[in-house]
Amino acid sequence: MFLVYFEEKGASCLEVIQTERLILRPPVLEDAAALLPIRNSDFVFAFNPMKPMSEAQMRENLDKERERMVVLEKKEDNTVIGAFFWSEDKLRYRVAALCLSYYLAQQESGKGYMTETLRKMTEQLFLQGTQVLSLRCYKENIASAKVAEKSGFVHEGCIRCAVLDNSGVLHDDCIYSLTREEYQTGGR
Q1: Helical spans, DSSP H, in the chain
Q2: C-alpha dist (Å) from residue 98 to 12, 55, 132, 148
Q3: Among 1-5, 136-140, 149-153, which is the least confidently predicted range?
Q4: 3-state SS class at 169
Q5: Considering only CA atoms, which of 174, 159, 134 is closest in space to residue 47?
Q6: What digits encode the pLDDT tens for the residues 56-97?
Q7: Predicted pLDDT at 15
Q8: pTM, whole model, 2 decimals?
Q9: Distance between CA atoms of 57 and 66, rounded to whole angstroms?
Q10: C-beta separation of 127 from 133 below 8 A
């Protein structure tokens, strides 16, 4: 299994996973200071309906979500540049399906870090027994759509007028998915 339990800490944590340029690791409370300005940035809020958090709320959230997220840390300088999450895919019924989400620092966008993360986490989550992975992004979020497509995810369609953002704008929500069989055979 992907989960490794550390008895001495009294809590479960994920294994540390490495890619070519990144360390994907469980969050620690100290990550709140690095993740908060990324998560609360206009860049992230432009394509996400999350509300701003305080550092105390971020620390609480990191503690609560530690079994279903990894922090993206650059190997070259140990800079925290984003986070990657998975949760139950509530659009599917009686299927081992997870829905993925993520955010990244604006200055690191367009450098392939999220594609690298998505590909590695796809591999890990399918090895864990997941049958289908999905992700959703606003129709206007061309960068996330490209990350999904480069990673082999198939565009299923859009739910029109699906998400109301914090400024009162309605967004179409595009859905992408990848089955374990598609992943294993290299495509549809």
Answers
A1: 32-39, 42-45, 55-65, 113-127, 142-150, 180-185
A2: 20, 28, 7, 14
A3: 1-5
A4: coil
A5: 174
A6: 999 999 999 999 999 999 999 999 999 999 999 999 999 999
A7: 81
A8: 0.90
A9: 14
A10: no
